[in-house]
Write a structure and sequence with these properties.
CATH superfamily: PK beta-barrel domain-like
Low-confidence stretches: none
Helix content: 10-25%
Mean pLDDT: 96
Number of strands: 13
Distance between the termini: 31 Å
Largest sheet: 8 strands, mixed
Number of domains: 1
Number of helices: 4
Order of helices and strands: EEEEHEHEEEHHEEEEE
CATH topology: M1 Pyruvate Kinase, Domain 3
Strand content: 25-35%
CATH architecture: Beta Barrel
Strand order of the largest sheet: 2-1-6-5-11-8-7-13
Length: 180
């Protein structure tokens, strides 16, 4: 079996965690209907403070469920939606995708991956020591961010748990994800 949606979440307010729902609706060019981060321009409060006119490259936040499994093995009980993601997937290494990869969810809805989520100190407010699990340096000293990926909605539709996820890599060389 291929990659699937394991859970979906949304919150109308700027809370750290989002409520798990039976389904969410993605709106083309906007994001998750009713979510605090929906819109064509940035909605993340720290980014709005810098420049509220910048395009919103963070309309949809995705995390792979395998990360939550790994965190559980390290002693952190983190359920879907608790790290603020909208879509939790299983069977897909989101962090290895190329910038510009398009995920087709359920056959119609499409999300283009724009980059990595840059985890912040609020994560340690959720669970002390969790930030070190999500951001660290590798053997070469390079910062490794593991808090999921961000994307924009290129074709809207409803997303529910159990839907298949198809991956379409962009043409050309792999472009590693960077924080957006």
């Amino acid at each position: 079996m291929g990659p699937v949606v394991e859970s979906v979440s949304s919150s109308p307010t700027h809370t750290f965690s989002k409520d798990v729902l039976p389904g969410i609706r993605l709106l083309t060019g906007l994001g998750v209907e009713g979510d605090a981060h929906m819109g064509t321009t940035v909605k993340h409060r720290s980014r709005v403070a810098v420049d509220p006119t910048r395009p919103n490259l963070r309309q949809v936040h995705l995390i792979h469920a395998e990360l939550l499994d790994e965190l559980a093995g390290a002693g952190f009980a983190v359920a879907p939606g608790q790290l603020g993601e909208n879509v939790t997937t299983r069977g897909l290494d989101l962090l290895a995708l190329s910038t510009g990869t398009v995920l087709r969810i359920g056959g119609g809805t499409r999300v283009e991956i724009t980059g990595l989520r840059n985890p912040c100190l609020q994560i340690d407010g959720f669970a002390g020591g969790l930030l070190k699990q999500l951001v660290h340096r590798d053997g070469n000293g390079t910062i490794v961010r593991r808090a999921g990926v961000m994307g924009v909605v290129v074709e809207g539709g409803t997303v529910t748990p159990g839907m298949p996820v198809e991956v379409s890599a962009p043409e050309g060389a792999h472009v590693p994800l960077v924080p957006v």
